[in-house]
Amino acid sequence: MIYLQGLPAFAAYFGMGLGFVALFLLAFLHSTPHRELQLIRSGNIAASLALAGALVGFCLPLSAAISASVSHLDLGLWGGVALLAQFAAHGFVRLLLPGFPARIERGETSAAITSGAAHLGVGLLNAAAMGS
């Protein structure tokens, strides 16, 4: 079955990708003063938009890293860069929008969209830089 020869490599890279996503979500959810999942469960659209933007903003460069990596160590290093870039984006949003956590708790979608756009923008730039 020659067509399955790439399955172990696929499984390893996909598993590492899922591990990085889990790590990102754990770190992101614990680094914010508001509780996104609780807010999302109660119907707070702003919390959902902000988290979605951050998650997609992280997955964009992570997917570029998976595509361009030549080894598991390489993916680990570039996945770490993607993590750091998203936390830098989050710090930028907190500086740009004073009282950001309270704004999300109040359900201000304008703050959430701005945050999501910042995370997506950083993610796109990060992904492009990894692919060059």
Task: Walk me through what this model shows.
- This protein is mainly α and 132 residues long.
- It has a domain at 45-132.
- The chain is built from 6 helices and no strands.
- It has helices at 7-31, 36-41, 45-68, 72-96, 100-105, 109-130.
- The longest helix has 25 residues, at 7-31.
- The protein starts with 6 loop residues before the first helix and ends with a helix.
Distance between the termini: 35 Å
Average pLDDT for all residues? 95
Order of helices and strands: HHHHHH
Main β-sheet, in a few words?
Answer: none
Structural class: mainly alpha
Number of helices: 6
Q: Please state the oligomeric state of the protein chains shown.
A: single chain
Percentage of residues in helical conformation: over 70%
Q: What form results from the Cα inertia axes?
A: elongated
Our estimate of the beta-strand percent is under 5%
Please mark out the parts with pLDDT under 50 across 5 or more consecutive residues, or reply none.
Answer: none
Output the radius of gyration: 16 Å
How many strands?
0
Indicate the topology.
Elements: H1 7-31, H2 36-41, H3 45-68, H4 72-96, H5 100-105, H6 109-130
Which key terms come to mind for this protein?
mainly alpha, single chain, 132 residues, 6 helices
Task: Briefly say what this structure is.
With 132 residues, the chain is mainly alpha-helical.
